[in-house]
Amino acid sequence: MPIFQPELETLPRPELERLQGERLRERFGVELEALAEQPFRMKSDLRDAYPFGLLQVPLEECVRIHASSGTRGKATIVAYTRADLAAWADCCARALAAAGAGPGTIVHNAYGYGLFTGGLGLHYGAERLGCTVVPVSGGNTPRQAQLLEDLGAEILCCTPSYALAIADHVPDPGRLELRAGLFGAEPWTEGLREAIESALGLAALDIYGLSEVMGPGVSAECAEARDGAHVNEDHFLVEVVDPQSGEPLPDGEAGELVCTTLTKEALPLLRYRTGDLASLTREPCACGRTFARMSRVLGRTDDMLIIRGVNVFPSEIERALLATPELEPHYQLVVERPGHLDELTVQVEGAADADAVRRRLHSVLGLTARVEVVPAGHVPRSEGKALRVVDRRST
Ligand code: DLL
What we know:
27% of the residues lie in helices and 26% in strands. It has helices spanning 6-9, 13-28, 43-48, 82-98, 117-129, 141-151, 160-167, 190-200, 314-322, 354-365; strands spanning 62-67, 77-81, 106-109, 132-134, 155-158, 180-184, 203-210, 215-221, 229-231, 236-241, 255-261, 272-278, 280-281, 293-294, 299-300, 305-307, 310-312, 327-336, 343-350, 370-374, 389-391. The chain has a nine-stranded mixed sheet with strand order 4-3-5-6-7-8-9-14-13. Strands 10-11-12-15 form a four-stranded antiparallel sheet, with no helix packed on it. A four-stranded mixed sheet has the order 20-19-18-21. Helix 7 (160-167) packs parallel to helix 8. It starts with 5 loop residues before the first helix and ends with a strand. 46% of the residues are buried.
């Protein structure tokens, strides 16, 4: 499958590391060997500098503003120069090419257009690659399904939860031309991958990114291996650190992903703590790209639920639920504190026996939860990022 920028994406690692070292020195005056001694940047630094305090160029040199979706507190504002947008389009074009797209491929882009980076990020990547973009944005789900069929899109871009919501309106995936999907912006599991693949008849690929660092396209999976998202390491230097101590962890160990931008002009960030838990590998990949791969995001440092002393990530619950064939991949977790103790209710669609699901969650995760198995369509569908956890403790 063609690689969009092979001269960069397949650079031998010693050359890649030399390039990273040069860029790091140019941007931040820091030597690669001394990176681990540098202080971290956090989301709170961006919030404290709201809206434009961390910009490194005059605002008039910025040609675009986006914002993080920020479910907690104020949104984080980010800005891009013309060169930043060009680099971003390259990264998204790489991701689309890695999914098998090329000039003339029809791309149905159902990520939200607007302040959210998903819509416009992939839009310009698709145009950069020469694809024919259908800029549907989110919403009006029955029409999405109709357009997929009528226009014959081969690539679908949206959140994994929205892919399933669209699939609800696709009576026969055999009538669609879809080959691959670029799904991200929210955590998802291998179980969800299988569910989407069988509902839509495509290869479901992971695409990762965050507004502070750029948006979608920080990393993306290749169709050949589908085994971790290639980080665009010529633009981003990634580390994994222990979330508690901040000490760097070796490849293969899961911890918090830390990103340094190597080319950004408007909002360069040195050692930005993403809050996302993942691991890295630099093992060669079947596709020929030499860029490191990151695992799926296993959870966030701030979305761990502590239910009666047991630490669980929503993604672990998703994995356990989807291992039960009678359950559908639509679920929501409701946390309440009626007295002194937290109570978790897992609502999931399907036809399984609730007590069996409860016992399974207990045996696999050590988790005590109430389980409600509800009929199809009962769990609210999202058009963008799914609301998986409803926390009623603070209200
Ligand atoms: O969600 C950018 C994006 C758009 C990525 C479209 C992929 C596709 P934010 O709104 O700033 O940006 O949210 C960033 O979303 O820190 C992760 O917690 C989560 N996230 C993004 N991609 C993935 C993924 C966009 N593939 C936050 N898997 C990040 C799991 C993801 N979580």
